[in-house]
Amino acid sequence: xxxxxxxxxxxxxxxxxxxxxxxxxxxxxxxxxxxxxxxxxxxxxxxxxxxxxxxxxxxxxxxxxxxxxxxxxxxxxxxxxxxxxxxxxxxxxxxxxxxxxxxxxxxxxxxxxxxxxxxxxxxxxxxxxxxxxxxxxxxxxxxxxxxxxxxxxxxxxxxxxxxxxxxxxxxxxxxxxxxxxxxxxxxxxxxxxxxxxxxxxxxxxxxxxxxxxxxxxxxxxxxxxxxxxxxxxxxxxxxxxxxxxxxxxxxxxxxxxxxxxxxxxxxxxxxxxxxxxxxxxxxx
Length: 284
Description:
About 50% of the residues lie in helices and about 5% in strands. By secondary structure, the chain is mainly alpha-helical. It has three domains: about 10-90; about 95-170, Arc Repressor Mutant, subunit A; about 210-255 and about 260-284, no CATH class. The strands form two sheets. Strands 1-3-2 form a three-stranded antiparallel β-sheet, covered by helices on one side. Strands 4-5 form a two-stranded antiparallel sheet. The chain is globular, with a radius of gyration of 23 Å.
């Protein structure tokens, strides 16, 4: 990427963007999204963000102001704005519904065994024992539990054992359907990026955004660290989920229940491309 035309602040940002976009570009190429398609998408997003975030005196920015902010030609701005919001609605996916059902199954006392793990559920509960039907209806009464059951069986989120429904461990990661994984890619990475942008622009109180980095490790050492991170990370997320469910049930009908949150844990490993990369970094 050319360094011409950038001041020092912009150049530092461009270097960061160059790094963070490479995995995304790899994914786009792999899935057949070409540069002209991506360029058009970026035009739309530049205009959308300028519209939403850069108003003056609560007035919608004019085409001329958006041109000054983004450098996009006025003809493109007018064309894109005239398209309105068609096809721009957020992806509505079963992923969010499945995520909440699994969250309740793994945290609410009526769905846990003596060890605090998700217990096997009868398809329909008996007496005081809540079953799979009750679990689904506690999240949404707009979808039948049989529909969820059949889809989860297809995606290997659950398995059947006699009359019981058993949650597979793989469900805690998410299913392997590409549409669902793309849903979480967008939402999880968006919030991580939004946290970073908030901190670098100092718009609000600093948000939690930390990582630990080490290089020059053997594969065996990396595997040991991965095992520790997986165990500790899972315990943290499970604990936070249990607390969040309780607070959500208490807050959801309150007038000031207008906030959302997300905590993510991620792991990445690969071989060094450059043997000179012997640095270590702990971000706190």
